[in-house]
Protein 1
Amino acid sequence: MRPQLLFPLFTSITTLTGVGAKGEKLLNSLCGDKIIDLIWHLPSGLVNRSYSPQLISARTGCICTLKVKVLEHIPPQTKKQPYRVVCTDGTDQVTISFFKVYADSIAKNLPLGAERIVSGKLESFNGILQISHPDYIIRPEDIDKLPQKEAVYPLTAGITNKMLGKVIAQALTRLPQLPEWLDNEFVRQQQWETFNRAIVRAHHPQTSADLEPGTRTRTRLAYDELLANQLALAIVRERVKKQAGREFKGSGLLRKKTLELLPFKLTSAQEKVLKEIHADQAQPFRMLRLLQGDVGSGKTIVALLTMLNAVECGAQAAIMAPTEILAKQHLETIQPLCEKIGIRAELLTGRIKGKTRQKILEELANGEIDILIGTHALFVEDVSFKDLGCVVIDEQHRFGVHQRLSLSSKGNKADVLIMTATPIPRTLVLTAYGDMEYSKIDQVPEGRKPVDTRVMPITKMNDVICGLQRKLAEGARAYWVCPLVEESEKIDLAAAEERFESLKKIFRNDVGLVHGKMKEKDKDAVMEQFKKGEIKILVATTVIEVGVNVPEATVMVIEHAERFGLAQLHQLRGRIKRGFQASNCMLLYAYPLSETSRSRLNTMKETEDGFEIAEKDLELRGGGEILGTRQSGFCEFRFADMNIHKSLLLTANRDAQMILANDPNLETPRGQALRILLYLFNKDETVQTYRS
Ligand code: ADP
Ligand code: MG
């Protein structure tokens, strides 16, 4: 249970005055619906209202605070004209203009002959000084009400900075006095203030330098965030490690037979990681290992050999993929091999229902099935194994730490191997997995030809079509990936359908379309046609739909490549790297092209090295967001910025280790305070593993 102290922060924002149903909706879309979400929403800019010049010598283009007398009201003659109010400060005149504002409210705020303080952006329009829609109009006696320094927040349509500033100020008053969860000596060395002071100060920048992520104030917050992250991961890891494991030292017979069936030899990188994995499996502890390998590096076979070691010892194994299509792809690789070596591998997904499902469940429970291949459905409670000893999670960045654990709890001290496709820089491994052991397949099978990658504007469509025609004539198959606009699947779909229709005019029945809204059955049918070569161009909307291994597919066209993240582009391109023929990737972009997009596309042209791409991605995005998707399971940090807080992460990592070494159940006063930190940063599930 969340500590009572934090209740005020986790109540709805509707408890604030001035936040109604509409406000709640807007604020929720902007930052969240809890008080704490407002508190986390830090300013990105600063308005300084201290500049109060005489009009005659005033600089234009900046915020000015003026003391003026109202001379004249000029109502608009046409609808397009603003309502104008001419004022003077005795040195010059300034026109204050309003569009679509009721005359009587203007008359009330700026009555003829009255003196007022007006603050807003002063501009010069045809030689006439002007402020349109001033931020503040107040009576001279109320000058105290004018904020000298005003934080500017990231906004969304429908919310003004003034409104947001007000609710955030209110939210800050709900902040309880929180205990210090950091080591006092460390805080002193760093010259940090308390969390409470830091968060309040972060909302009251005094200079624009105060907005930088590297300020002392924001660094304290970043550290709190990183410590919560590292501590949560360390707790999860300790919990898994504490559990005794089983020693799997198989005879090697099934593995040997499998290797003999393969048309290739393992790469030395594959052999190296298998050695590391098998060594873990032989230990009397539970394995919890991360396997990293670029697209096409051959992780599937490593997964199979890992599972076979457990099967050789009489246990069952499971491999879980993030999508149905990927699960089926594993099935297609694994099942035929298993048949030949005399063991059973079956598929179980959410779509398998009724009698078939019942039968699989029975055979799992009585141990007839040796290897289960599945999707999230494996989490479903009715699935129970006779003796699950090894779980491989083909992650592709879709699961969170807790899901990982919930599956492994199905096993009897099961070993867990997590596989990720996108190479992750060391810093991100740490933020996403903590100190998990990891193995890296740092080599792809030999003989693969590099992909010829070209970047071109979409206006060169004719050249693309001609190129494609040539390739198809040579017998190639092609993916055509259409843009991904997260918020609107409808628009995505329309664009893909339109492309499909226009390609159909040229390539006739050679074109097929798959998209997320299609029934699984229909999707499968189209995929099958593409695999068999009955269709030669596959138009697809999302990354997931092209997760299939079709060695003949050697061409990939990505439309609006500028909208994809580097990691996604790399993954997509990986799909055509599987064959041993030359392959072509065409990245089509449309203007406007941001500096970042341009740099991303160039990186794609320059390198195929996943690690290099990942590092570049990290640099371009500046951190947590590397995989481009929210559901990635990777943290997106609010305060920590991996470009400047890298060393802080390492400190937080060590700090977390030390904390758990000294106070494994977080029971000391500092431990209790750390529990609050964990709840504050939404690590509830982790803290709940402790029974209080
Ligand atoms: P990923 O790591 O992306 O999951 P896969 O396991 O799907 O890669 O392997 C990609 C392709 O490479 C498959 O067609 C697989 O059969 C092949 N492959 C795997 N290991 C080797 C190897 N040592 N030599 C040659 N081809 C290999
Ligand atoms: Mg794979």
Note: The chain has four domains: 4-45+170-211, 50-146, 253-441, 451-607.
Protein 2
Amino acid sequence: MANEATPAATVAPGVKPGRLWIGGEYVDAQDGATFTITNPATGEALTTCAQAGAADVDRAVAAAKAAFRATAWAQMSALDRQRILWNIGERMMARLDEFAAAETLCNGKPIFESKYIDVPDAAKCFQYYAGWATKIAGQTLPLSTGPFLNYTRREPLGVIGAIVAWNFPILLASWKIAPALAAGNTVVLKPAEFTPLTALLLAECAKEAGLPDGVLNVIPGRGSVAGQALVTHPDVAKIAFTGSTEVGKGIVRASVDTVKKVQMELGGKSANVIFADADVDAAVRGAAGGIFYGKGEVCAAGSRLLVERSIHDAVVEKLAERAQKTPPGDPMNPKTRLGAQVRESHLQTILGYVEKGKSEGATLVAGGSRAAIDGKGAFMQATVFSGVTNAMTIAREEIFGPVLAVIPFDSEDEAIAIANDSVYGLAAGVWTRDIKRGHRAAHRLEAGTVWINAYNRYDTATPFGGYKQSGFGRDMGPDALDGYLQTKSVWVDLSEDKA
Ligand code: NAP
Ligand code: MG
């Protein structure tokens, strides 16, 4: 909320109030606006943060444009860019505990995930793209007209506006920033309002690593204000977005007037398919991890579990047991595997879907209720529904919580048909011991990522993104780098001068 009273002191060690990071330094919003960051595990204020308005977006874009134009970054030697990107990763790991605590306190995810997965993977992302900075090259193309020399150059786009969701704050930010910088662009990042702190720590690390001022700017603020101003800004060349399909559609519409390039990483309702010939215990572990990991607030969550009928009842029983053995706990406790949902309001949405599931005739076999730690917090039990049909709301809409919908099937064709019957196409899983069936299914599934006998695996080297309404463009891998480059064709006349 703008201008509300600042709560007393920062409650967690190492968590500083957030400000805007523009031109290599912390600044306040021009109108002095701030908002409160809440810890979802307690419902209490954690700290405050400056809130960017349209004037601040202008300042940040101007800083990024100047840094791009001043050629401090785009024209820096590729080896220097490589070294700086690598060092950003090193600086992040040197401050691992600080990053992990800030991430968990804002988001509610288990500290285990922040410390051992999200922050190290974000650091690795910078180190992966460090390697690419020195390997961006054009081509020399043989022409059928002549005599000419023609070659292509791979050039950066300019100022990138990155807008990301709250579910993997530092990872999503790094997936945009690292390839954008490796390609020679400058960046203005708008983190989600719930979770801006780790992006600010990243900006500090980037400066420590030698990134020139203005190359990376971070502007916490509301999507409808700061986000919108970034999307419509004439000096922003591309919007790289991760968030809901609904907001993504609005951004695509708003990008038209300035003919911005857009990359959309959107929602999902991913199908995880267990065939009767699978290693059932491994599949059940994968299915549980696929929905309970990250409290189910994972775009690629395996939220629809398709199970071949002959093993259906056994799988449901094992899943219910696993759900009961995965109680929510204090996210700062290293043993916790199910943290707090990001906000009370989001928990209410999840509980609304549970009611909808019951009223549409699904059978609740585990969980289904909220929980509390010391009487506080936005905690949700690990929840499993069986008897779900693909027409039910809980099988069609993204719940974004630890709620699994189990759907039986009788044949491979039926499984593929159900899996593909969704407006989304982000990810899918296949569990089988038949190598031919595994690949066959992977090829037929309409999804940007398919795991065979695994779920929720990611690596910076391999692209991640959606089919259908899960979006277009890719994060990570060589594809992401490509999305931050444009090709220039250069012609040289080689004909002899005629007197
Ligand atoms: P969201 O509501 O769409 O918000 C995403 C970002 O957009 C936030 O920074 C938000 O700011 C901003 N925003 C909101 N309205 C805007 C507008 N009119 N113009 C510009 N920016 C605007 O999504 P969320 O609730 O944070 O995240 C959950 C969604 O993200 C899920 O659907 C999930 O599947 C998706 N997701 C996709 C991927 C992927 O890689 N495909 C990865 C992670 C998450 P504020 O939050 O500050 O308002
Ligand atoms: Mg939202």
Note: The pocket of NAP (ligand 1) is lined by residues 163-168, 172, 190, 192-193, 222-224, 227-228, 231, 242-244, 247, 250-251, 265-268, 299, 398, 400, 426, 466, 470-471 (CB under 6 Å).
